[in-house]
From TrEMBL:
<feature type="domain" description="VOC">
    <location>
        <begin position="153"/>
        <end position="271"/>
    </location>
</feature>
<feature type="domain" description="VOC">
    <location>
        <begin position="7"/>
        <end position="132"/>
    </location>
</feature>
<protein>
    <submittedName>
        <fullName>Ring-cleaving dioxygenase</fullName>
    </submittedName>
</protein>
<dbReference type="Pfam" id="PF00903">
    <property type="entry name" value="Glyoxalase"/>
</dbReference>
<keyword id="KW-0223">Dioxygenase</keyword>
<dbReference type="GO" id="GO:0051213">
    <property type="term" value="F:dioxygenase activity"/>
</dbReference>
<dbReference type="InterPro" id="IPR037523">
    <property type="entry name" value="VOC_core"/>
</dbReference>
<dbReference type="InterPro" id="IPR029068">
    <property type="entry name" value="Glyas_Bleomycin-R_OHBP_Dase"/>
</dbReference>
<keyword id="KW-0560">Oxidoreductase</keyword>
<dbReference type="InterPro" id="IPR052537">
    <property type="entry name" value="Extradiol_RC_dioxygenase"/>
</dbReference>
<dbReference type="InterPro" id="IPR004360">
    <property type="entry name" value="Glyas_Fos-R_dOase_dom"/>
</dbReference>
């Protein structure tokens, strides 16, 4: 069993509108936009990152907004719900805030001893705010959300699968342990993890496969401390029979990817070097940052990309 993985690093999804996506995560959820850059493989498309003040691993929701992309079809083989940790007693505040913002899909429930408020993102994305006791992670308290309500980061995520078995075994190999079962959902967690260390598996044998589109999670990334730990994980996965990509430099972390037995794309990402490698912490996400190989495209991109709430210019 591996011990290098400490929980989630980030979750990356698809969207239809960059400006609408930006407004939702900053104005409505009160997160900080910690980076505006572009998709490495499609540089005419943004890659937007939202999280706590510094973009700590385990707090960062990222998006590829493809204009006019069709909405995804929910199903098996994907991340179902991304779970955000909020302070105890704050769900009433969030119910009121999200209602006033006309957020759809609001529904309260309780699972594994935690009160939750489910809601949908602009493209039907599945989210829930979860009251978590004694989450000590620092919060970003901008955009009108106070410390008694602000999001700490992820609690974790749920996977919708036709069959639990092979993916559960993979997660256990990655260091997760089964914590509980409730209403057909198995909860796995990493003891002493980074706070974003819970994965729920929902088994849905009679549901058709998901179709990727706006509102779909593209991949879910797990955190390791550094490149040396990442290489240890890569070797162990390959020795177990998984087809893992070479290490890819994503500017703010190094990444490897592999497809799980249930169909979900997993990434292992490093905590280093972080989002302040090319911007001062006080000004994260304010200007367009480009990977070295795409810097020559800046004049085109500044004309082509949809304006957000700040200048695209560096």
């Amino acid at each position: 069993m591996l011990n290098q993985i400490k929980g989630l690093h980030h979750v990356t999804s698809m969207a239809a509108s960059a400006s609408g996506n930006n407004r939702f995560f900053t104005d409505t959820l009160g997160l900080r936009r910690v980076k505006q850059t572009v998709n490495f493989d499609a540089p005419d498309v943004y890659h937007l990152y939202y999280g706590d003040e510094v973009g700590s691993p385990g707090s960062v929701m990222t998006y590829f907004p493809f204009p006019h992309i069709a909405r995804g079809r929910p199903g098996t083989g994907e991340v179902g719900t991304t779970l955000f940790s909020v302070p105890e007693g704050s769900l009433g505040y969030w119910q009121d805030r999200l209602s006033k913002a006309n957020v759809e899909g609001l529904k309260s429930d309780e699972a594994f001893g935690n009160k939750r408020l489910h809601f949908a993102g602009p493209d039907g994305d599945g989210f829930a705010l979860v009251e978590v006791k004694d989450d000590s992670r620092a919060q970003f308290t901008g955009n009108g959300v106070g410390q008694d309500q602000a999001i700490h980061g992820f609690q974790g995520a749920s996977l919708r699968l036709r069959d639990e078995g092979a993916t559960a075994e993979l997660l256990k190999f990655m260091g997760y342990q089964e914590m509980d079962r409730q209403d057909g959902v198995v909860r796995l967690g990493i003891p002493g993890g980074n706070g974003a260390d819970v994965i729920d598996i929902e088994t849905m044998p009679n549901i058709s496969g998901a179709r990727l589109g706006a509102g779909s999670v593209h991949h879910i990334a797990f955190a390791v401390e550094n490149r040396a730990k990442q290489l240890e994980v890569r070797k162990a996965l390959m020795d177990t029979g998984y087809q893992v990509t070479p290490v890819i430099d994503r500017d703010y972390f190094w990444a490897i990817y592999f497809r799980t037995p249930g169909g979900v794309l997993f990434e292992i990402a490093t905590n280093e070097p972080g989002f302040d490698r090319d911007e001062d912490t006080a000004h994260l996400g304010e200007t367009l940052q480009l990977p070295e190989q795409h810097k020559h495209l800046r004049p085109f991109l500044e004309q082509h990309l949809e304006p957000l709430d700040g200048s695209l210019k560096a």
